[in-house]
Amino acid sequence: MRDYRPERPEPEDFDDFWSRTLDEAKAFDVAAGFRRHDLPLTGVDVHDATFAGWGGHPVNAWFITPAGAGERLPCVVEYVGYNTGRGFPHHHLVWPAAGYAVLVVDARGQGGRSFDSPGGTADPGGGTFAEAPGMMTRGILDPEHYYYRRVFTDAVRAVDAAAAHPAVDPERIVVSGGSQGGAIAQAVAGLRGDVRAALIDVPFLSHFRRAVEITGADPYREIVRFLSAQRGMEERVFRTLSYFDGLNFAARGRVPALYSVALMDDVCPPSTVFAAYNHWAGPKEIVVYPWNNHEGGSGAQVERQLHYLRELFAAG
Fold first, then answer.
1. Across the strands, what pairs with 285?
2. What is the topology classification, in CATH, of domain 14-314?
3. How far apart are CA 159 and CA 169, in angstroms?
4. Which end of the chain, N or C, is surrounded by fewer C-beta atoms within 10 Å?
């Protein structure tokens, strides 16, 4: 798998599609707002943040800094896993404990089924065609309307929202996430080269064709169920997915990236993770967890990331 570098299903207008998408988003002021959230946590300052994402739609996030920070800080923009939201502020104290700011971004339309990680951001731009349950087939017959066009655009705008806060050093913003969050971080780092680094754990939404053919697990299985009911739609579905495939974003990634992969992972098969990693065009490292499933390295990987960023920022 370390040599697995499959051909990428890249449409000819991939760059034009994303350039136009992000230009459309820029028509709306990012309008980042930060409202103090009162919690008896003495070591951190917590703000309930909002900003304008795709279509100007409001996106919610937590913005947390070390208490009383008096200088511009590195900031980790963190994206969440599938079917979860930003959760509660006390879930996100590792980065402030290390001296960083963190912006934890909702995934629009998600978090309604997770009792411990609720979300609060709507998806006003949903498609109109019939969908299988979940997000994977929302608007899947047209890249203009596909769900992840909105999510990835929200995520790009989140970096602008973080940079707008006076406590953040805009030259030291890192994107981070696991599974769906890893896919989002990978996409953002491929779409904009001004982030400092990307922390990409067991990324979802990469090498779609292989993933749906070899795993029986959700969320990829949502696409299989859709195709089993909507016979004859295969070509349109995979054309749409080619605009959102992590392989194509990875090929545009130039910033330092720390990946992780779990070899027992039946949700995001390890070959699909290595396919993205092997296409990453910038400096990169990957941590392999041979006996783990989709939980990957969990806390062990967080420790690895803390050391990685300390060395990265020390190097300038």
1. 258
2. Rossmann fold (3.40.50)
3. 11
4. C
Closest by alpha carbon to 189, among 240, 151, 161, 155? 155
- How far is residue 293 from each of residues 183, 185, 282, measured CA to CA in Å? 17, 20, 27
* Neighbour count for residue 230 (Cβ, 10 Å): 17
Domain boundaries, the chain: 14-314
What confidence tens digit (pLDDT) does each residue in 201-240 have? 999 999 999 999 999 999 999 999 999 999 999 999 999 9
* Per-residue pLDDT at 129 exceeds 70: no
Percent of the chain with pLDDT over 90: 92
Residue 316: the pLDDT is 81
- Is residue 256 within 8 A of residue 230, CB to CB? The reply is no
Furthest CA-CA distance within the chain:
59
| DSSP state for residue 160 in the 8-state scheme | H
Catalytically active residues are 179, 265, 294
| CA separation, residue 261 to residues 97, 164, 268, 279, 292 (Å) | 26, 33, 9, 15, 9
CA distances from 292 to 2, 14, 250, 257, 271 (A): 18, 34, 24, 21, 14
Residue type, 168: V
* Residue 102, helix vs strand vs coil: strand
For the annotated binding site, the residues are 82
Summarize pLDDT for 160-201 with one digit per residue, the tens: 999 999 999 999 999 999 999 999 999 999 999 999 999 999
Distance between CA 169 and CA 90 in Å, rounded? 23
**Helices (H), ranges, the chain:** 14-25, 94-97, 147-163, 180-191, 208-214, 220-229, 234-242, 246-250, 270-279, 298-314
pTM for this predicted structure: 0.97
What residue numbers does the annotated binding site for substrate cover? Answer: 82
Mean of pLDDT over the chain = 96
